[in-house]
Amino acid sequence: MEEHQIKERLLAENFEFRRLHDEHRDHDFHLSELSAKPFLTPEEELRERELKKQKLFLKDKMALIVRDFQKSLQD
Fold this sequence. Notes:
This protein has one domain. The longest helix is centred in the C-terminal third of the chain and has 33 residues, at 42-74. The chain has 75 residues and is mainly α. The chain has three helices and no strands.
């Protein structure tokens, strides 16, 4: 099973993966809003950094779920 198929299956069947995915997507949306601004206030710069960190953390957690799922298919 290819990775994109695994992700589609996890989105359909795994609540935690879907929650992480939705939160990751929301952070991405907010980051795109910030990047559309000509300049950022210090508060917005801080928010941008926090969103990027959170987004990376979510991506890592989703990758772990994918790896665990792949391993379960091999067992």
